Amino acid sequence: MKATRNFKIPFLIFICVFWPSMALGAVNLRDMDFNRVHPQVRIKDVVDVEGARSNQLSGIGIVMGLAGTGDKSPMATQMMKNMLQQYGVTVDERAIRSKNVAVVSLTTDLPPYARPGQTIDLNVSTMGDAKSLQGGILLQTPLKAADGNIYAVAQGPVLVGGYTASGSAATTTKNIPTTGRIPNGAIVERDVPADYVGGEQLALLLRAPDFTTAQRIADAINSAFGAVAYPMDAGRIVVDLPGQYVGAPTAFLAKMEKLEIQPDSVARVAVNERTGTVVMGGDVKISSVAVAHGNLTVSVAEDPNVVQPDPLSGGETATENRTDITADEDGTSFIAMPSTTTVRDLVRVINAIGATPRDVIEILQAINEAGALHGQLINM
């Protein structure tokens, strides 16, 4: 009986850095537009107004009405006892034990400009050993900020994006049934003033700080309203309100945020080895490199033979093992890229050699180690 074992040895990568005149091949770059790596975007899509910020709220409450999937811990019993005492009901802890309630944590963000009476969405998650929040209803719970004051009150049915079902011998669970949301489940009771104008000035904060982007935003504002904006650093731009908008800063912001600019950023390549994800920015460039990619498969075949002794020799039947080992290296390719290579060329070449996303990660890491990758290589 013949048994065969195949061993897949990881591919080999050879990176050679050389001058453009030594390139083994060239890539046609005439169809590429190097000046349009980043699109034109509105200022409002890349900045926030200083002083107009959200605030985090949190609370601890009880979800009722669960079908036996609630908490078994003393924490749930104590919470129910405290709640009943608020309504003037005093009972023994042993009389209020139930699997139909769950202690939950509540989190949400109070957006800027939210006024009392408006509603906001709410996130709900279990704190104890509850198995599911499906079908539960949150009882009225205050939500506090870091200063200890109550800014909203939450209540309502919990929407769960998963489920769990169990029997005597099996359990089935889909998604996460111990977390959920309550759309419009919190009513704002107190607002937070948004003071974004001070001394006839306001400031813009870049969500992705960059000196070039900050200067381009200031230039766009100055072109439209005169010399009123100047960047303080890579993440903050100060704007003096034009004379006609001193009493109407909202009107100025409405017109200013519609202006378009072309943002800039540091060239980055983000890779995730766990999932095989590779994301490369359009402005990533590499020096002249040559990439060799190949697969080596080693096959080991066991073919045992039965050996019979000569007649009347007094010997015994025995088994003789014979092993055949073969090595097959296929799919090897060697491709060169010149120093003007960008991400589009790199993707084209990688596809040409038939590399998988995980192979691409190894290739990029090798190019980076060779000093040919001009950008940040980020391992997620």
Written description of the protein model:
Residues 7-35 have low confidence and may be disordered. This protein has helices at residues 74-86, 211-225, 249-256, 343-352, 357-369, and strands at 3-17, 41-42, 47-49, 55-64, 102-110, 119-126, 137-144, 150-157, 163-166, 171-174, 179-188, 201-206, 229-231, 236-240, 260-261, 268-272, 277-280, 285-286, 289-302, 305-307, 318-320, 323-337, 341-342, 373-374, 376-379. The protein has 380 residues and is α+β, with helices and mostly antiparallel strands. The protein has a 6-stranded antiparallel beta barrel. It has a 4-stranded antiparallel β-sheet with strand order 3-12-14-13, with helices on one face. The longest helix has 15 residues, at 211-225. The protein has 3 domains: 3-36 and 268-379, no CATH class; 41-51 and 196-261, Gyrase A, domain 2; 55-188, no CATH class. Helix content is 16%, strand content 40%. The protein contains 5 helices and 25 strands.
